[in-house]
Write a structure and sequence with these properties.
The protein is built from 11 helices and 14 strands. By secondary structure, it is α/β, with parallel strands linked by helices. About 2% of the residues have low confidence. The strands form 4 sheets. The protein has an 8-stranded parallel β-barrel with strand order 3-4-5-10-11-12-13-14, surrounded by 4 helices. The protein has a two-stranded antiparallel sheet with strand order 1-2. It has a two-stranded parallel sheet with strand order 6-9. Helix 3 runs parallel beside helix 6.
Length: 366
Protein backbone atom coordinates (compact mmCIF):
# COMPACT_ATOMS: atom_id res chain seq x y z
CA UNK A 1 0.00 0.00 0.00
CA UNK A 2 1.42 3.39 -0.98
CA UNK A 3 1.95 6.03 1.67
CA UNK A 4 -0.71 8.65 1.99
CA UNK A 5 0.08 11.89 0.19
CA UNK A 6 0.54 14.55 2.86
CA UNK A 7 -1.85 17.49 2.91
CA UNK A 8 -1.69 20.89 4.57
CA UNK A 9 -4.16 19.77 7.23
CA UNK A 10 -2.39 16.59 8.28
CA UNK A 11 -0.53 16.64 11.61
CA UNK A 12 3.26 16.59 11.70
CA UNK A 13 5.87 16.11 14.42
CA UNK A 14 8.40 18.94 14.46
CA UNK A 15 10.97 17.82 16.99
CA UNK A 16 9.29 18.00 20.38
CA UNK A 17 6.28 19.82 18.93
CA UNK A 18 3.19 17.94 17.74
CA UNK A 19 1.70 20.30 15.17
CA UNK A 20 -1.95 19.65 14.25
CA UNK A 21 -1.45 20.88 10.68
CA UNK A 22 1.37 21.68 8.25
CA UNK A 23 0.65 25.40 8.05
CA UNK A 24 3.32 27.37 9.88
CA UNK A 25 3.29 31.08 10.55
CA UNK A 26 6.60 32.39 9.23
CA UNK A 27 8.58 34.99 11.20
CA UNK A 28 7.34 38.52 10.47
CA UNK A 29 8.96 41.68 11.83
CA UNK A 30 6.14 43.93 13.05
CA UNK A 31 7.62 46.27 15.70
CA UNK A 32 5.27 47.02 18.61
CA UNK A 33 7.93 46.96 21.30
CA UNK A 34 8.74 49.70 23.76
CA UNK A 35 11.84 51.19 25.36
CA UNK A 36 14.67 48.74 25.81
CA UNK A 37 13.20 46.54 23.06
CA UNK A 38 10.69 45.21 25.59
CA UNK A 39 7.62 43.68 23.88
CA UNK A 40 4.29 45.44 24.46
CA UNK A 41 2.73 42.37 26.03
CA UNK A 42 -0.97 43.16 25.56
CA UNK A 43 -0.63 43.88 21.84
CA UNK A 44 1.62 40.95 21.06
CA UNK A 45 -0.46 38.53 23.12
CA UNK A 46 -3.57 39.45 21.15
CA UNK A 47 -1.76 39.32 17.80
CA UNK A 48 -0.20 35.90 18.23
CA UNK A 49 -3.20 34.34 19.99
CA UNK A 50 -5.41 35.37 17.06
CA UNK A 51 -3.16 33.23 14.83
CA UNK A 52 -2.84 30.24 17.15
CA UNK A 53 -4.61 27.90 14.72
CA UNK A 54 -1.33 27.65 12.79
CA UNK A 55 0.39 24.32 13.27
CA UNK A 56 3.28 26.31 14.69
CA UNK A 57 4.00 30.02 15.05
CA UNK A 58 7.57 31.17 14.49
CA UNK A 59 7.88 34.51 16.26
CA UNK A 60 9.12 37.68 14.67
CA UNK A 61 12.91 37.97 14.63
CA UNK A 62 13.99 38.67 18.21
CA UNK A 63 17.33 40.18 19.15
CA UNK A 64 19.82 38.11 21.14
CA UNK A 65 21.78 41.21 22.24
CA UNK A 66 21.88 44.96 21.80
CA UNK A 67 24.90 44.46 19.53
CA UNK A 68 22.72 42.35 17.25
CA UNK A 69 19.50 44.38 17.16
CA UNK A 70 19.12 47.41 14.91
CA UNK A 71 15.43 47.67 14.07
CA UNK A 72 13.20 50.29 15.72
CA UNK A 73 10.67 48.79 18.15
CA UNK A 74 11.77 45.21 17.46
CA UNK A 75 11.76 42.92 20.52
CA UNK A 76 14.71 41.38 22.30
CA UNK A 77 15.17 38.33 24.50
CA UNK A 78 18.38 39.19 26.40
CA UNK A 79 17.06 41.09 29.44
CA UNK A 80 14.91 40.07 32.39
CA UNK A 81 12.35 42.72 31.43
CA UNK A 82 12.06 41.29 27.93
CA UNK A 83 11.63 37.75 29.24
CA UNK A 84 8.86 38.85 31.61
CA UNK A 85 7.11 40.74 28.81
CA UNK A 86 7.14 37.68 26.56
CA UNK A 87 5.50 35.44 29.19
CA UNK A 88 1.93 36.78 28.71
CA UNK A 89 2.40 36.37 24.95
CA UNK A 90 3.34 32.70 25.08
CA UNK A 91 0.67 32.09 27.73
CA UNK A 92 -1.96 33.59 25.43
CA UNK A 93 -0.90 31.42 22.49
CA UNK A 94 -0.96 28.28 24.63
CA UNK A 95 -4.35 29.21 26.10
CA UNK A 96 -5.67 29.49 22.54
CA UNK A 97 -4.37 26.00 21.76
CA UNK A 98 -1.30 27.08 19.84
CA UNK A 99 2.44 26.50 19.80
CA UNK A 100 5.13 29.18 19.38
CA UNK A 101 8.91 29.26 19.05
CA UNK A 102 11.25 32.25 19.23
CA UNK A 103 13.41 33.23 16.26
CA UNK A 104 16.87 34.27 17.49
CA UNK A 105 18.33 37.21 15.55
CA UNK A 106 21.69 38.93 15.18
CA UNK A 107 21.62 41.47 12.35
CA UNK A 108 25.37 41.86 11.99
CA UNK A 109 26.32 44.66 9.59
CA UNK A 110 22.66 45.68 9.26
CA UNK A 111 22.72 47.24 12.73
CA UNK A 112 23.26 50.99 12.38
CA UNK A 113 25.75 52.57 14.76
CA UNK A 114 22.91 54.74 16.15
CA UNK A 115 21.74 51.62 18.02
CA UNK A 116 25.24 51.00 19.37
CA UNK A 117 26.12 54.36 20.90
CA UNK A 118 28.18 55.19 17.84
CA UNK A 119 30.17 51.94 17.81
CA UNK A 120 30.67 50.00 14.59
CA UNK A 121 28.43 47.05 13.82
CA UNK A 122 30.10 43.66 13.42
CA UNK A 123 30.12 41.18 10.56
CA UNK A 124 32.13 38.35 9.03
CA UNK A 125 34.33 40.90 7.26
CA UNK A 126 34.79 44.65 7.05
CA UNK A 127 31.97 45.48 4.64
CA UNK A 128 29.10 47.95 4.28
CA UNK A 129 25.55 46.91 3.46
CA UNK A 130 23.90 48.68 0.52
CA UNK A 131 20.98 51.04 0.98
CA UNK A 132 19.55 52.57 4.10
CA UNK A 133 18.95 51.45 7.67
CA UNK A 134 15.74 52.09 9.58
CA UNK A 135 16.55 54.15 12.66
CA UNK A 136 13.97 55.80 14.92
CA UNK A 137 12.06 58.36 12.86
CA UNK A 138 14.15 58.18 9.67
CA UNK A 139 16.45 56.22 7.40
CA UNK A 140 20.23 56.56 7.24
CA UNK A 141 22.88 54.98 5.03
CA UNK A 142 24.41 51.87 6.53
CA UNK A 143 27.83 52.34 8.12
CA UNK A 144 30.93 50.21 7.65
CA UNK A 145 31.03 47.08 9.80
CA UNK A 146 34.19 45.65 11.30
CA UNK A 147 35.16 42.01 11.17
CA UNK A 148 34.62 39.98 14.31
CA UNK A 149 37.88 38.63 15.66
CA UNK A 150 38.38 34.95 16.38
CA UNK A 151 38.49 35.82 20.07
CA UNK A 152 35.08 37.54 19.92
CA UNK A 153 33.15 34.73 18.25
CA UNK A 154 32.71 32.57 21.39
CA UNK A 155 30.87 35.49 23.01
CA UNK A 156 28.48 35.63 20.03
CA UNK A 157 27.75 31.92 20.44
CA UNK A 158 27.23 32.45 24.16
CA UNK A 159 24.72 35.22 23.40
CA UNK A 160 22.69 32.79 21.27
CA UNK A 161 22.73 30.21 24.04
CA UNK A 162 21.70 32.75 26.69
CA UNK A 163 18.88 33.96 24.45
CA UNK A 164 17.75 30.37 23.89
CA UNK A 165 17.59 29.76 27.64
CA UNK A 166 15.66 33.01 28.06
CA UNK A 167 13.20 31.98 25.35
CA UNK A 168 12.40 28.75 27.15
CA UNK A 169 12.10 30.66 30.45
CA UNK A 170 9.64 33.00 28.69
CA UNK A 171 7.44 30.05 27.76
CA UNK A 172 8.41 29.49 24.13
CA UNK A 173 8.22 25.89 22.90
CA UNK A 174 11.58 26.14 21.19
CA UNK A 175 13.81 28.43 19.14
CA UNK A 176 14.80 29.04 15.56
CA UNK A 177 18.27 30.22 14.53
CA UNK A 178 17.88 33.04 11.99
CA UNK A 179 20.50 32.12 9.41
CA UNK A 180 18.76 33.87 6.51
CA UNK A 181 18.09 37.17 4.76
CA UNK A 182 21.56 38.69 4.88
CA UNK A 183 21.93 38.88 8.68
CA UNK A 184 25.01 37.88 10.68
CA UNK A 185 25.05 34.12 10.13
CA UNK A 186 24.19 34.60 6.45
CA UNK A 187 27.03 37.13 6.23
CA UNK A 188 29.39 34.37 7.39
CA UNK A 189 27.84 31.80 5.03
CA UNK A 190 28.11 33.65 1.73
CA UNK A 191 31.32 34.40 -0.13
CA UNK A 192 29.97 37.78 -1.23
CA UNK A 193 30.26 39.05 2.36
CA UNK A 194 32.79 36.67 3.95
CA UNK A 195 36.36 37.46 2.92
CA UNK A 196 38.05 35.94 5.96
CA UNK A 197 41.26 33.92 5.70
CA UNK A 198 40.94 32.16 9.06
CA UNK A 199 38.92 29.15 10.23
CA UNK A 200 35.63 30.95 9.56
CA UNK A 201 36.36 31.96 5.96
CA UNK A 202 37.41 30.63 2.58
CA UNK A 203 36.13 27.10 1.86
CA UNK A 204 32.46 26.31 2.36
CA UNK A 205 33.27 24.10 5.35
CA UNK A 206 34.77 27.11 7.12
CA UNK A 207 31.99 29.51 6.17
CA UNK A 208 29.31 27.23 7.64
CA UNK A 209 31.30 26.92 10.90
CA UNK A 210 29.49 29.68 12.81
CA UNK A 211 26.11 28.20 11.85
CA UNK A 212 27.30 24.78 13.04
CA UNK A 213 28.68 26.08 16.31
CA UNK A 214 25.64 28.22 17.18
CA UNK A 215 23.20 25.45 16.33
CA UNK A 216 25.25 22.78 18.07
CA UNK A 217 25.54 24.86 21.23
CA UNK A 218 21.77 25.42 21.31
CA UNK A 219 21.08 21.72 20.73
CA UNK A 220 23.48 20.82 23.53
CA UNK A 221 21.69 23.27 25.84
CA UNK A 222 18.01 22.95 24.89
CA UNK A 223 17.82 19.56 23.18
CA UNK A 224 17.53 18.82 19.48
CA UNK A 225 13.73 18.78 19.56
CA UNK A 226 13.59 22.45 20.50
CA UNK A 227 16.01 23.89 17.92
CA UNK A 228 15.32 24.73 14.27
CA UNK A 229 17.05 26.84 11.62
CA UNK A 230 15.98 29.19 8.84
CA UNK A 231 18.12 29.64 5.70
CA UNK A 232 17.46 31.62 2.52
CA UNK A 233 19.00 30.05 -0.60
CA UNK A 234 17.22 32.69 -2.66
CA UNK A 235 19.90 34.72 -4.42
CA UNK A 236 21.02 38.17 -3.31
CA UNK A 237 19.37 39.53 -0.18
CA UNK A 238 20.30 42.84 1.46
CA UNK A 239 23.59 42.83 -0.45
CA UNK A 240 24.46 39.29 0.62
CA UNK A 241 25.01 36.66 -2.09
CA UNK A 242 27.07 33.58 -2.92
CA UNK A 243 28.74 32.37 -6.11
CA UNK A 244 27.69 28.71 -5.61
CA UNK A 245 24.51 28.48 -3.50
CA UNK A 246 23.96 24.79 -4.26
CA UNK A 247 27.32 23.82 -2.76
CA UNK A 248 26.99 26.26 0.16
CA UNK A 249 23.46 25.50 1.27
CA UNK A 250 23.83 21.81 0.55
CA UNK A 251 26.80 21.68 2.91
CA UNK A 252 24.89 23.70 5.51
CA UNK A 253 21.90 21.35 5.31
CA UNK A 254 24.12 18.28 5.62
CA UNK A 255 25.80 19.76 8.69
CA UNK A 256 22.45 20.54 10.30
CA UNK A 257 21.25 17.03 9.54
CA UNK A 258 24.29 15.64 11.31
CA UNK A 259 23.71 17.88 14.34
CA UNK A 260 20.07 16.86 14.46
CA UNK A 261 17.49 19.65 14.61
CA UNK A 262 13.70 19.78 14.85
CA UNK A 263 13.23 21.14 11.33
CA UNK A 264 14.84 23.28 8.64
CA UNK A 265 12.92 26.15 7.05
CA UNK A 266 13.96 27.54 3.65
CA UNK A 267 12.94 30.88 2.20
CA UNK A 268 13.57 30.75 -1.52
CA UNK A 269 12.28 32.58 -4.57
CA UNK A 270 9.56 30.70 -6.43
CA UNK A 271 8.23 31.14 -9.92
CA UNK A 272 4.44 31.25 -9.64
CA UNK A 273 3.58 33.33 -12.68
CA UNK A 274 3.02 36.80 -11.30
CA UNK A 275 4.79 35.87 -8.03
CA UNK A 276 8.45 35.54 -7.23
CA UNK A 277 11.46 35.60 -9.54
CA UNK A 278 12.42 33.42 -12.48
CA UNK A 279 16.18 34.08 -12.49
CA UNK A 280 17.11 32.26 -9.25
CA UNK A 281 17.13 28.45 -9.54
CA UNK A 282 15.57 26.55 -6.65
CA UNK A 283 18.08 25.05 -4.23
CA UNK A 284 15.58 23.03 -2.18
CA UNK A 285 15.67 20.01 -4.56
CA UNK A 286 19.41 19.77 -3.86
CA UNK A 287 18.89 20.14 -0.12
CA UNK A 288 16.10 17.57 0.21
CA UNK A 289 18.37 14.48 -0.17
CA UNK A 290 20.84 15.94 2.34
CA UNK A 291 18.42 16.74 5.16
CA UNK A 292 16.40 13.90 6.63
CA UNK A 293 14.28 15.89 9.07
CA UNK A 294 11.15 17.93 8.32
CA UNK A 295 11.82 20.47 5.56
CA UNK A 296 9.61 23.57 5.57
CA UNK A 297 9.38 25.75 2.46
CA UNK A 298 8.37 29.41 2.36
CA UNK A 299 7.71 32.09 -0.26
CA UNK A 300 4.58 33.03 -2.15
CA UNK A 301 2.53 29.89 -1.49
CA UNK A 302 -1.25 29.81 -1.44
CA UNK A 303 -3.62 26.90 -0.84
CA UNK A 304 -3.08 25.29 -4.25
CA UNK A 305 0.49 25.84 -5.39
CA UNK A 306 1.88 23.99 -2.37
CA UNK A 307 0.26 20.67 -3.32
CA UNK A 308 2.96 19.46 -5.71
CA UNK A 309 5.79 20.20 -3.29
CA UNK A 310 3.99 18.38 -0.48
CA UNK A 311 3.02 15.43 -2.67
CA UNK A 312 6.55 15.00 -4.04
CA UNK A 313 8.09 15.05 -0.58
CA UNK A 314 10.13 18.14 -1.37
CA UNK A 315 8.30 19.94 1.45
CA UNK A 316 6.92 18.42 4.64
CA UNK A 317 5.09 21.63 5.57
CA UNK A 318 4.65 25.20 4.30
CA UNK A 319 5.25 28.44 6.17
CA UNK A 320 3.15 31.47 5.29
CA UNK A 321 4.33 34.99 6.04
CA UNK A 322 2.49 38.05 4.73
CA UNK A 323 -0.87 36.23 4.30
CA UNK A 324 -0.98 35.87 8.10
CA UNK A 325 -0.76 39.66 8.58
CA UNK A 326 -4.30 40.41 7.41
CA UNK A 327 -5.76 36.93 7.87
CA UNK A 328 -5.64 35.80 11.49
CA UNK A 329 -7.85 32.89 10.41
CA UNK A 330 -5.58 31.93 7.51
CA UNK A 331 -5.80 28.22 8.36
CA UNK A 332 -9.59 28.27 7.96
CA UNK A 333 -9.34 30.27 4.74
CA UNK A 334 -6.94 27.68 3.33
CA UNK A 335 -9.24 24.89 4.48
CA UNK A 336 -12.32 26.38 2.79
CA UNK A 337 -10.64 27.98 -0.22
CA UNK A 338 -11.79 31.43 0.85
CA UNK A 339 -9.94 34.45 -0.56
CA UNK A 340 -7.21 36.16 1.44
CA UNK A 341 -7.73 39.67 2.75
CA UNK A 342 -4.96 41.88 1.30
CA UNK A 343 -2.65 43.50 3.82
CA UNK A 344 -1.49 47.13 3.90
CA UNK A 345 2.29 47.49 3.83
CA UNK A 346 2.06 51.11 4.96
CA UNK A 347 1.11 49.99 8.47
CA UNK A 348 3.27 46.87 8.80
CA UNK A 349 5.42 48.61 11.40
CA UNK A 350 2.98 51.10 12.89
CA UNK A 351 3.27 51.58 16.66
CA UNK A 352 -0.27 50.67 17.69
CA UNK A 353 -3.08 48.18 17.11
CA UNK A 354 -4.03 49.44 13.63
CA UNK A 355 -3.07 46.90 11.02
CA UNK A 356 -1.95 44.53 13.75
CA UNK A 357 -4.79 43.12 15.84
CA UNK A 358 -7.80 44.67 14.09
CA UNK A 359 -8.07 42.38 11.05
CA UNK A 360 -11.51 40.68 11.00
CA UNK A 361 -11.99 36.97 10.43
CA UNK A 362 -14.48 35.40 8.05
CA UNK A 363 -16.81 34.82 10.96
CA UNK A 364 -16.72 38.55 11.61
CA UNK A 365 -17.73 39.30 8.05
CA UNK A 366 -14.34 39.73 6.36
Amino acid sequence: MSAKTPRLFDPIQLGDIAAPNRILMAPLTRGRSGAGHVPISELKAAYYAQRASAGLIISEATGISQQGLGWPSAPGIWSDAQVEAWKPVTDAVHAAGGRIICQLWHMGRLVHSDFLGGAQPVSASATTAPGFAHVPGEKKPYVAARALTMEEIPAIIADYVAAGKNAIAAGFDGVQVHGANGYLIDQFLRDGTNFRDDGYGGPVENRIRLLREVTGALVDTLGSGRVSVRLSPNGETQGCDDSDPVALFGAAAAALDQIGIAFLELREQRDFGDFGRTDVPRVSPHIRPLFSGPLILNQEYDGENCADDLASGLADAISYGRPFIANPDLVERLRTGAPFTPDNYRIWYSPGPEGYVDWPTMAQGA
